[in-house]
Specification:
Layout: E1 4-13, E2 35-36, E3 39-55, E4 76-83, E5 90-98, E6 103-114, E7 119-120, H1 123-128, E8 153-160, E9 164-172, H2 174-182, H3 193-197, E10 210-221, E11 225-232
Antiparallel strand pairs: 1-3, 2-3, 3-4, 3-5, 5-6, 6-7, 6-8, 8-9, 9-10, 10-11
């Protein structure tokens, strides 16, 4: 890891996206709740000032803007505004609708953005803008699952306190869920190798920590045993002529 410092200016949560059925939080009255008929609007803005002793110029596209690990184009000291180092800046909707005494319908959609540039988070674009450039003229470019999609999270499914949760759509992998839960840095991009590289949570590939067309199931027993499984539909490769 390189040496540097980061000053967190603000991290604002419009509403905590933990459980949509929790309509109010500490210090929030029912009238001020951002939950309406079980649907919660929430958002996070994470932005700070960062200085790196060895880096390429910060990018407006990658979710965290900086590289946070010394890379092949890290040839100068850089100071600038960077987002999403502690947590991903995002806005989303999360909902829960009780179906009967056992099951509820649930959904979540999220858009990731970079507050300092106004760009949708796009790791792929941070790479492609460096195509054809010499190392000395490149900006930070790091791969990831964010590639300019309108929704980085988009899933729906069913939840039961007894039978667990079954969801369908674009969602996080079980490896990423476990990393966020057990990493002391909560997979924060700026404060540890797990978050800075994201290769572990993607099973060896940074772009695979979130996947489309995924079915995911999770269940817990007595808060001690947790089981999970996922399956993803992959289109078959075309046969050669």
């Amino acid at each position: 890891m390189k040496c540097g410092w980061l000053l967190l200016l603000s991290a604002i949560a419009a509403a905590v996206p933990a459980r949509a059925q929790q309509k109010t939080g500490p210090g929030i009255t029912g009238e001020d709740s951002l939950t309406w008929h079980g649907i919660t609007l929430y958002g996070v803005i994470d932005i700070g000032v960062q200085y790196d002793t060895h880096s390429a110029p910060f990018t407006p596209y990658r979710p965290s803007a900086s590289g946070n690990i010394v890379r092949q184009n890290s040839g100068e000291s850089v100071t600038g505004i960077t987002p999403s180092n502690m947590g991903q800046s995002r806005v989303g909707l999360q909902g829960i609708e009780r179906l009967n005494d056992e099951f509820s319908a649930v959904f979540q959609i999220e858009t990731f953005f970079n507050p300092q540039s106004g760009e949708i988070a796009d790791s792929l674009k941070s790479l492609t803008v460096n195509n054809g450039r010499s190392l000395a003229s490149q900006s930070v470019g790091v791969d990831g699952s964010s590639a300019g999609q309108a929704f980085q999270t988009a899933w729906a499914g069913f939840r039961s306190a007894r039978f667990g949760t079954l969801t369908f759509g674009r969602q996080t992998t079980l490896l990423l869920d476990g990393t966020i839960k057990y990493d002391p840095n909560y997979n924060a991009t700026a404060f540890g190798l797990l978050g800075a590289s994201n290769t572990y949570s993607g099973g060896g590939a940074q772009e695979d920590n979130r996947l489309d067309s995924m079915v995911k199931y999770s269940v817990g027993f007595s808060n001690r045993v947790h089981l999970g499984a996922l399956s993803r539909k992959i289109a078959p490769s075309p046969r050669p002529p």
